[in-house]
Write a structure and sequence with these properties.
136 residues; alpha+beta; two-stranded antiparallel sheet; 26% helix; 29% strand
């Protein structure tokens, strides 16, 4: 692959496919070595701000400290702010397995344990990954 793994960005296409990864170039759908998943979380409304804080802290640590964590993006549903969706991209499944063993991930999990009402994890395979370079 001639695209730097660390330069990836993710964004949403309103009204269409929810997950698209922006690369500093185009990537063939055949290039499936990356491990991608979507986490759908429902948070206790009384704990929402505490949850968001813990999530930001954990995501920042993961992206900063783990080379195999390529991107983590969290969004909430405008209609239902307690419904959080996280788009995760890892270099490979081993990078994901390493991620869930890190102290910062374990801290996140223990911190939010009583805040999360439901969690649904879905492994996904990209069909098309297109994007534009970010403006400098």
């Amino acid at each position: 692959m001639n695209v730097s793994i660390l330069k990836r960005k993710c964004f949403l296409f309103p009204g269409s496919v929810l997950l698209t990864i922006m690369f500093m170039g185009n990537v063939s759908a055949q290039e499936k070595s990356h491990y991608m998943r979507i986490a759908k979380i429902v948070v206790d409304s009384a704990q929402l701000e505490n949850y968001k804080s813990a999530l930001r802290e954990g995501m920042s640590a993961a992206v900063s400290n783990e080379p195999g964590v390529l991107s983590l993006y969290a969004v909430f549903d405008k209609q239902h702010p307690t419904h959080i969706t996280i788009f995760e991209t890892y270099a490979d499944v081993n990078a994901y397995q390493s991620h869930i063993q890190t102290p910062h991930f374990k801290k996140y999990k223990s911190t939010v344990e009583q805040m999360v009402k439901s969690l649904e994890l879905t492994d996904v395979i990209p069909i098309a990954l297109e994007g534009k370079k970010e403006a400098k």
